[in-house]
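#struct-pred
JK: can someone run the complex with PPE? inputs below
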Amino acid sequence: MNVDPTDLIWMNGEFVAWEDAKVHVLTHGLHYGTGVFEGVRCYDTELGPAVFRNAEHVERLLKSAELYYMPVPYSAEELRSATLELVARNGMSSCYIRPIIYRGYGQMGLNPLEAPVDVTIACWEWGAYLGEEGKRRGIRARVSSWERISPRSLIPHAKASGQYLNSVLAKVESLKAGYEEAILLDEHGHVCEGTGENIYVVRDGEIATPGQHNSILDGITRRSLIQLAGDLGYEIVERNVARAELYLAEEVFMSGTAAELVPVREIDDHPIGTGEPGEVTRVLQAAYDDAIHGRSERYREWLDVVSPSALQTPTGEVRTASRAPTVTG
Ligand code: PPE
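RT: done, C-alpha cells with the ligand placed:
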C-alpha cells in the first residue's frame, strides 16, 4: 500500500520535513527488529479531526517499550500531544498515525541496552486496509500454515517490530494462494488472530473471540467492540476458538485500527453463513463507525480532538518547524 508523503514527521522532539526523516543503515532496530510501534487513526468527526483512543495507544506503546527494555525519554502526555500537533501541522482531517520507538544507531550486537532509543511519529492518509469492497462485502481468508508466535518465544501482547515477521510470512502465503488475509492458530490449534486484526465468530447467538492467553494482540478496536457490543445488548465472550468454529460460524469478522471492522465471507473455501456479511457484523460495523466519527454522544470520550491549540506552545506562541539531526548516537 503506497504511502503519500505529508509535510512533517515528529522525530525525537522536533518536527522535520518528511524527506529528511531518515535513519542510518546501521540502526539497531533495522537489523534486529528492536522497535515497538502503534497504529492509530484520526477521523474527521463532528467535533473536528479527532484521534481515536489516543491515550490508550500511547499507553500500549509505552508498555511495549518497557517489555523490550527500552527507556522512553518522553512522557505519555508528551507523546499524546505530539500526535495531536503532528496531525494539526500536517493539516490532516483524517489520517493513519504511526508512532515508533526503536533502538537507534551506534551499537551492534544483540545487547540493545547501550543503543540510543529513538522516537518518531508519522502520519499519512490511509484508506481501507483490506479494501473498500472487503469492508462492504467481506474478504476471503485462509488458515495459515504458519503458527502464531508463542508467548514462550516472544510477547504477543507487545506490538514489536520483529514480531511482525510472523505476520509477514502468513500474509504473503495467503496472498500468493489468492486470499486476502490469513488466520493464524497457536500450537494447540486454537484460533489467534489475523496478521493485523483480531477475529470474532458468531454462532448460535454467541459472539466469541480468542482470549488474552490465545497469543493475541490486545486490540484497542477489540476493547472498543467488546464495550459497544455490551451496550447494544450483545456479549462478546473471550474463550478458546476451535478451527472448525470458523467454518461453522454464521458470521466471522475481524477488527483493527487499520482494517476497522471487516466481514469475512469465506475461509479455506467454505462460505461463512450465507456468504454475505451477517446482521451482527453489520450492527457492530455501524456502531463502530458512529463511535469513531463522533456520532455517538456516549463514546465521545474516546475522541482526542485535534484543536487549533495543538499548534500552540504553553505560552501561546505558534511554533515553527525545526530540523533535527538525521542520525543520533
Ligand atoms: N492483532 C495484530 C497482530 C495487529 O497488528 C493489530 C493491529 C491488531 C490485532 C488490532 O489491534 P488494534 O489496532 O489495537 O485494534 N494492527 C495494526 C498494524 C497494521 C499494519 O499493517 O501495520 C493496525 O491496525 O494499525
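RT: quick notes.
The longest helix spans residues 54-67.
The chain has eight helices and 17 strands.
JK: thanks, will look after standup
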